[in-house]
Amino acid sequence: MLCTRCRHFEATDDGVVCEHCAAAGAPPMAPPHGSHASAWLSSPVGLGRTVAGLLGLVVAADLFAIRADAMSYGVLGALVDGDTGADVERRAERADSLYAFAGSLQTAALVITGVVFLVWFHRVRVNAEVFDPFGHRRKRGWAVGGWFVPFVNLWFPRRVAADIWDASSPSGTRRSHLLLNGWWAAWVISLLAGRAASTAYRRAETAPEIKRALGQMLFADAVDVVAAVLAILFVLTLTRMQDTKARSGPGAAVPVSG
């Protein structure tokens, strides 16, 4: 059984606190509000690798979308310049088909990746609670629910991720949040830019307006590539941190399942 105070080391024979907490004269503590004594380490390695692979598909879908955006942007440029020949019409039809397909491809990749990412994110959140049950500003449920609440989803998941990151850092140290902040900033920018571009595209009625909207979409897709690459690095780094911390724990301190 784990120590009822630090939830990291094995409790002594009395099943209450570990030797470290007992030596410090620390009384048992209940888990903080919103945490659960049933927190149990589960290996995030398989899920982390799967998420990284799926994020690679997101990058591929975004790159394809950028190609489709650029093609449509070029065709709109020709139309704005007054070119209405048969060649432009053929290019326009092809660009429209690629643009629609790219949108479907991005949506499918995002949905599939999002589902697996949330499963992984919840798992590392529970693991982090075992590492440090008192270092979390939000309940477990926000690891998933925080992504779906309007406006709140712009900062709550980042806060949950920061707590997970800190709890998963090597004992006695705290790793920089640079990677986390870079990923989060790129993701928020791509999210807001994508919504603005989609709104502009729906409202566009003339060729120049559509061209401007496509320019915005190109920017949003490019930033999304950056966000996805940083997300891959974040997922792999955090997964490795948790795996290393679990394996380098004190003896039989915390069991790893899965």
From TrEMBL:
The keyword NADP does not apply. InterPro entries: DUF4328 (IPR025565). It comes from the Bacteria. The keyword Transmembrane helix applies. Keywords: Membrane, Transmembrane, Transmembrane helix. Pfam families: DUF4328. Residues 89-240 form the DUF4328 domain. Signal peptide: none annotated. The chain crosses the membrane at residues 98-121, 141-157, 178-197, 217-238. Coiled coil: none annotated. This is DUF4328 domain-containing protein. It comes from Streptomyces phyllanthi.
